[in-house]
Amino acid sequence: MTCNEADRRSPAVRETVRDGYARIARAGASCCPESPCCGQGDGADAVARQLGYGEVELSALPEGANMGLSCGNPTAVASLRAGEVVLDLGSGGGLDVFIAARRVGPTGRAIGVDMTPEMISAARRNAEQFQAATGLDNVEFRLGEIEHLPVADASVDVVISNCVINLSPDKPQVWREIARVLKPGGRVAVSDLALVQPLPDAVRESVEALIGCIAGAVPVDESLRMAGEAGLVKVQADAQPIYSDDPADWADTTCACIFGLLPEGKKPSDYVVSVDLTAVRPQDRQ
What we know:
There is one protein chain. With about 290 residues, the protein is of the alpha/beta class. The chain has one domain: Vaccinia Virus protein VP39 (Rossmann fold), CATH 3.40.50.150. It is built from eleven helices and eight strands. α1 crosses α6 and α7 packs across α10. The radius of gyration is 18 Å and the shape is globular.
């Protein structure tokens, strides 16, 4: 497998990511379509179970909503309540949107935003299944970039995101947008990949690593700083391992290409962790 180099200019990065996720949407597959993602199990549901999603949650999802793209479980961290408006950044097939919609109930709303038309089309088809199965009409998917959210100011109670902000070429702008759309007192629960140390250039420049959510990751402290500079408070992060260090677990996947570029003797966990980041918009923020 050949690892190509990604053009690091912002427009090119965005189009590279969009094209990659369009292919995933058409295939209905995870980020490693040849086989499970980076040693996380034998399919999308196995990945989700390892991240703490329950069997009842997964069995109730529309077919195709879970594409195996998660690196955390933001709905579990968000402490969602009935009647809240929840916004999912980079909603993909709708996994977290549908789980959130059940938790906020008929008086709440779950909105997904994704920049890939193919993902939005797939999610809207899934929404029809969801409504037919549950009777809930509280789900909506909007086409848009997370740097320029198609959402009104101070209109959202909770912002969630699952392994998406790392893909953005302008992460500070994403955090400013999160702060903009949150109501005073609104909450953030983001699951993402983060760096323990800088990636080797060969990995950082890999297209596969970009689409696989690794090349765009930043250190945990940098995410905390960006969230704080956007005006959010009570910013906290909890990091944990995400990738297996056994090459046999990710052999013959796209991840073999990514991790095969690591220096001799180095392991995925030396560079990348999963992080749950939480924050709050202050009550008195103008």
